[in-house]
Each structure stands twice: as C-alpha cells, then as structure tokens.
C-alpha cells in the first residue's frame, strides 16, 4: 500500500514513512493511494470475532508491506487487552433503536486511546527495526496529551515532551499526564496559554537544529494516518454487533478535526453498509456551516463545555476535500491556500456530493446540558458533553427510525464534571476503579517560562541519549 499527499506534490510513501511523518512536504496530508474493499460475505464472516482480531482484518491491508502478520496480531492483542472492558467498545442502548458506543474504556478514558495505544507500539516497532530514535513534541489543552503519553510510556525508542499551559488545564487532565511514570515521559508546564505552547511546537518542527541532528521530531496529532486507520475498526464492530452487514447503520460522531467521522466515511467506502453519517459539532461549527451553506470560513474560537472539539480549522477535512475534488491535489492546494486568507466555497455539484455523504448539526452549551439531563432522566445514564452533542445531533438529523442510530461515545463523563454540574444534575460522575486513586498518585512535571529557547534547551538536554 502506498500513500499519497492531498496536495499532489510530495513523494508517495510506504506505511513506515507515513507513520513517522506528520505533514507531507507540500503541506498536505497522506491518504492511501487506494482503499481495500471487503465483500458483504467477507464482513459477515467476521461476526463474533474478538475486537483485536477484527482490528487485524480491517487494518492489515494498510500495513502489510511493513509488518509481518504475526507481529501485527501481537501488537493488536497487547493494545486492546489494555482496555477495561472485554468487548473493548461496548454498546449501550438508549432507546428502541438508538445506541451509544462507549469508546472510553481505554487508559485515559477517551476514544483517542484506540489510536494512540496502537500508535506508540507501531512507532517503537518501526524504530527498532530501523535503529532510529524520535522525540515526540506536542502541545495539549487536555485530552490528546494524556492519550499520547499513555500510548508512548513503554516505547524504547521514543521520548515524549508534552507542553501544557501552566495552571490552565483541569486537575483531572493534568494528573492524567503528570502521574504517568517513565524516564521517556516529560511534562512541561509553560507559563503561557495553549496558543503559546502550540506556537513553540510549530517553530520547533520548522527548525530542529536545537536537537543537534542526533534525533528528529515526530508528531502524534490527528493528521497522522495511523490514527485514522485505527478508528475505522469500531464502525465495523458496532455494525456486526447489531446485525450488520445485512442491515445498514447510521452513525453520529462528535467531531472537531474531522478525524473520527472521516474514519466512518472510509469504513463505508471499504464496503460496510452505512446509510447515514452525522457530523456533530459544538459552537465551533466550521464543518456544520460548510455542510449547510457551502462556505468554509474560520471564525473566532469559542470556549465551550466540550473543549476537545474547540477548533477553528478542521485539519482532516482536507482528506475529504481531496476525494470531493476527484483526488486532484493541485485543486486542493489552491482551495486551502485561499481558505487561509478568507472564506471559500467549492463547486456546487461537489458540495452536493458532500451533502449526500453527510448530515450535520451544531449544538450549543445549553442544548448540550439539556441533553445530558434528558438522557439521565430517561435512562439514569450519564453522557459526557461531547457524546451528548452526538446524541442530540443524532436525534435532530435522523432520517429512518428502522436503521440503528449509533452515537460514538468519545469520553467518560468523569473527565468533564463541569458540564454535569451545569446541567443541574446532582449526581457526581465517578472515575472508574482503575483510575480511582488518580488524586493520590505522584505527579512529575517541570514549569518553564514562556520562552522558546528555554523549552528547546530543556528538550535537547533531557531526551534519552542527549
Ligand atoms: C478529540 C476528541 C473529539 C474530537 O475528535 P476529532 O478527531 O476531532 O474527530 C471528540 N471528543 C473527545 C472527548 C475528544 O477527546
């Protein structure tokens, strides 16, 4: 399998290089040159498989040139046995034909574990083979940092440095990052805000000379193809559990960067019968505005009760635009260069094609809270605010009540207690047993000034072979 850039100018790469690369050299994102396609008969034969075995079936075509089957199976077994539920991604029923797929049974209680637990193992495998080392550098306002740290804690050939804004992340989120023990894990609290952290990461990627040429930076943000790949699997899992592929399914996906929902679109292209895909956003609704009015336009960032979806631009959307433009990289390059300067639209027939593929809805904080309360009153089941947005959008956009509607449950409610309080419920979401002692665990982090040279100096001194 070869991978090509959405902007058409960077060289095609194999899986190993795509794994280690962030953006393509032309500024684009890597996508598979062609997708595997599974027949209904083949998908049907996967009924009842354990999650890790299903993951093997769905993902192996993407990695087969780089990893022998047995090694990949072993990696998947290890990855998904670390989840605190036998089925890995259990379904919970909300109403007669309505479901939540709980994707938060992994070590950091959010769906990002599905991809990042695997990504850490993939990186270490490839780096071991190549006798290379990388430094992962990332900025986080919460969720991604902890999932990335957990994913890399056992890596021999990776050091990870995660920058978070000092005293500006919630205590649960900070502790999820800073209590993970490991010589290769480095938490830096920057005396600045999230944008300062992100700017430092960006500048460091642009000029890596501070590492003295002895190692290189790698990224684990959601533009990494391997993350998307791992997220395709649970669409198959949900469908098979509810009578697929002999009936089609509808999915509602809380999204910001278009990563998770893009994985659903790929599942459909790979042969899974999916009759509806709902894009669910919060007030940062660039995707919903595009889908409803063919205008792709950045607006001011809003801080919401669903912070993991607070974005201004939706980076993975570029991968869909590539397909909508008949995989014409030059057209995508033009469009996105213009989009950086102001609002853009695409040709009407292309936009109509997008509307055939997706429905969308934007849900504000008040409606998010109303939904948390409503579902609790109906079912004594607590939703986290991101999942609540998915459930609301599912109910608003549903087309056919005979088709099972599955909302992806992206986080555990105990991660976002503010939204539960705001919804007026007096229940307090409890951390699950494997996290119950989070507030007693020892924390480790270094506070640094909001200064690029100081942060880079810290990195260059503290990676493994420095
Ligand atoms: C990251 C995240 C999302 C958004 O994921 P996308 O990659 O933007 O699709 C939604 N909910 C939670 C809890 C998250 O952590």
From TrEMBL:
Q: Which biological pathway?
A: Amino-acid biosynthesis
Q: Where is the Threonine synthase N-terminal domain?
A: 2-80
Say which domain of life the source belongs to: Bacteria
One Pfam assignment = THR4_C
Q: Which EC numbers characterise this protein's activity in its record? A: 4.2.3.1
Query: So what does this thing catalyse?
Result: O-phospho-L-homoserine + H2O = L-threonine + phosphate
List required co-factors: pyridoxal 5'-phosphate
Please name the GO terms that the record assigns under molecular function: pyridoxal phosphate binding; threonine synthase activity
Q: Which residues carry this modification: N6-(pyridoxal phosphate)lysine?
A: 112
Q: Name one GO biological process term.
A: threonine biosynthetic process
| Keyword annotations | Amino-acid biosynthesis, Lyase, Pyridoxal phosphate
Instruction: Spell out the family assignment given in the record's similarity comment.
Output: Belongs to the threonine synthase family.
Task: Report what the protein is called.
Answer: Threonine synthase
Please report the organism this UniProt entry assigns to the protein: Marinobacter litoralis
């Amino acid at each position: 399998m070869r991978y090509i850039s959405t902007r058409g100018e960077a060289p095609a790469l194999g899986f190993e290089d795509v794994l280690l690369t962030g953006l393509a050299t032309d500024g684009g994102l890597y996508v598979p040159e062609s997708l595997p396609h599974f027949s209904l008969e083949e998908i049907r034969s996967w009924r009842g498989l354990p999650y890790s075995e299903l993951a093997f079936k769905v993902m192996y075509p993407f990695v087969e040139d780089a990893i022998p089957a047995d090694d990949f199976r072993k990696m998947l077994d290890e990855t998904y046995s670390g989840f605190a539920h036998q089925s890995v991604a259990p379904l919970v029923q909300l109403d007669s034909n309505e479901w939540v797929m709980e994707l938060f049974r992994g070590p950091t209680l959010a769906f990002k574990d599905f991809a990042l637990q695997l990504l850490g193992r993939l990186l270490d495998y490839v780096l071991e083979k190549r006798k290379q080392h990388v430094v992962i550098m990332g900025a986080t306002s919460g969720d991604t940092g902890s999932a990335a740290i957990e994913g890399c804690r056992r890596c021999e050939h990776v050091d990870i440095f995660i920058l978070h804004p000092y005293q500006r992340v919630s205590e649960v989120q900070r502790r999820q990052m800073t209590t993970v023990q490991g010589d290769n894990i480095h938490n830096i609290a920057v005396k600045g805000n999230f944008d300062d952290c992100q700017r430092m990461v960006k500048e460091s990627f642009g000029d890596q000379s501070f590492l003295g040429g002895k190692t290189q930076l790698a990224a684990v943000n959601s533009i990494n193809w391997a993350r998307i790949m791992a997220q395709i699997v649970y669409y198959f899992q949900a469908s098979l559990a509810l009578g697929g592929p002999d009936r089609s399914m509808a999915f509602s996906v809380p999204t910001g960067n278009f990563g998770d929902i893009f994985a659903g679109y790929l599942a459909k292209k790979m042969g899974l019968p999916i009759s509806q895909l709902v894009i669910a956003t919060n007030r940062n609704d660039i995707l919903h505005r595009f889908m409803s009015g063919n205008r792709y336009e950045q607006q001011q960032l809003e801080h919401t009760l669903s912070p993991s979806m607070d974005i201004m631009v939706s980076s993975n959307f570029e991968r869909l635009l590539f397909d909508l433009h008949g995989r014409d990289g030059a057209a995508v390059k033009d469009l996105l260069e213009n989009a950086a300067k102001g609002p853009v639209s695409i040709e009407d027939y292309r936009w109509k094609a997008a509307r055939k593929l997706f429905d969308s809805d934007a849900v504000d904080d008040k409606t998010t809270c109303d939904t948390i309360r409503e579902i609790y009153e109906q079912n004594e089941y607590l939703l986290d605010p991101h999942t609540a947005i998915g459930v609301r959008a599912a109910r608003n956009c549903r087309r056919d009540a005979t088709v099972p509607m599955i909302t992806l449950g992206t986080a555990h409610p105990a991660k976002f207690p503010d939204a539960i309080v705001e919804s007026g419920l007096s229940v307090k979401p409890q951390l699950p047993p494997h996290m119950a002692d989070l507030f007693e665990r020892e924390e480790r982090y270094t506070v640094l000034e909001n200064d690029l040279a100081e942060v880079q100096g810290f990195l260059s001194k503290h990676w493994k072979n420095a």
